[in-house]
Design goal:
Residues 3-144 form the S-adenosyl-l-methionine hydroxide adenosyltransferase N-terminal domain. InterPro entries: SAM_HAT_C, SAM_HAT_N, SAM_OH_AdoTrfase, SAM_OH_AdoTrfase_C_sf, SAM_OH_AdoTrfase_N_sf. Belongs to the SAM hydrolase / SAM-dependent halogenase family. This protein has five helices and 15 strands. The protein has two domains: 2-147, Rossmann fold; 160-257, Beta Barrel (Elongation Factor Tu (Ef-tu), domain 3), CATH 2.40.30. The protein has helices at residues 15-26, 44-54, 97-103, 123-136, 241-245, and strands at residues 2-7, 31-36, 63-67, 78-83, 87-91, 105-111, 145-147, 160-162, 165-173, 179-181, 196-201, 204-210, 222-226, 232-236, 252-257. A hairpin with a 5-residue loop joins strand 9 (165-173) and strand 10 (179-181). By secondary structure, it is of the alpha+beta class.
Length: 259
């Protein structure tokens, strides 16, 4: 059974290695896979978004451990969710919620199992890694914690269309500088392929050609397209849209077809 890790730990320090060491000490046969360890520090939303974008491509039964945990050592609960096809382990701060709720949560537990010596600052190693390892050995979730009825849920990104204008937000920037927005198919209510979109952000307007794929425009041209996750994306062909237009996650957008 695979255990897939997502953290904001980076790879410079020993943190990820320590988690893997705990997992393999409990289950030497575990298959440990890295989703990413480059979530921006303490950015729960980005961690949740990446997890929700990746989890569905893994085989049934995969155990996901997501540790983006600015509340480590506080009253926030360590959470284990059994969904229709998977297990999700991590802090109860919303980082698990987008993926787990999409797959359908069937059981939820506050994790009580942990290493004998529990630190106040590294629950990834001391709580979440052992819980995942025991799950990979076939231990039932009820043996690792106590049932809970509620957990923190993050709101899903959305967009609204009214009067020929769409209101959305930037929600993610990938390593290419492509900027994901919260808009999806709603864009077809205001535009068709080949139209130019006027994207207002921070009092300025970015013009982007609405195309099916990057190759439909010239290098250096700003485009808008529906990306592989179904979101409306702003990109610069062979370039970096975030850098070129000063964009980042969390910005409000007004989008319309340019007249």
């Amino acid at each position: 059974m695979a255990i897939a890790l997502l953290t904001d730990f980076g790879t410079r320090d020993y943190f990820v290695a320590a988690m893997k060491g705990v997992i393999l000490s409990i289950n030497p046969r575990a298959v440990v896979v890295d989703i990413t360890h480059e979530v921006p520090p303490q950015d729960v939303w980005t961690g949740a978004f990446i997890l929700a974008s990746a989890y569905k491509w893994f085989p049934r039964g995969t155990i996901f451990v997501a540790v983006v945990d600015p509340g480590v050592g506080t009253e926030r609960a360590p959470l284990l969710l059994r969904t229709r096809r998977y297990f999700f382990v991590g802090p109860d701060n919303g980082v698990l919620s987008l993926a787990a709720e999409e797959d359908g949560v069937e059981e939820a537990y506050r994790i009580e199992a942990r290493l004998p010596q529990l630190s106040a600052t590294f629950h990834g190693r001391d709580v979440f890694a052992p819980a995942a390892a025991y799950l990979s050995l076939g231990v039932e979730p009820r043996m690792l914690g106590i049932p809970v009825a509620t957990w923190v849920r993050l709101g899903r990104p959305s967009a609204e269309v009214a009067g020929g204008e769409m209101r959305a937000r930037t929600i993610y920037v990938d390593r290419f500088g492509n900027v994901y927005t919260s808009a999806r198919g709603e864009v077809f209510q205001i535009a068709s392929w080949g139209d130019v979109l006027c994207i207002e952000v921070g009092g300025r307007v970015i013009e982007a050609k609405f195309v099916e794929t990057y190759g439909r425009a010239r290098p250096g041209e700003t485009v808008a397209l529906i990306n592989s996750e179904g979101y409306l994306e702003v990109a610069v062909v062979m370039g970096n849209a975030a850098a070129a237009h000063g964009l980042k996650a969390g910005l409000d957008l007004k989008i319309r077809r340019c007249s």
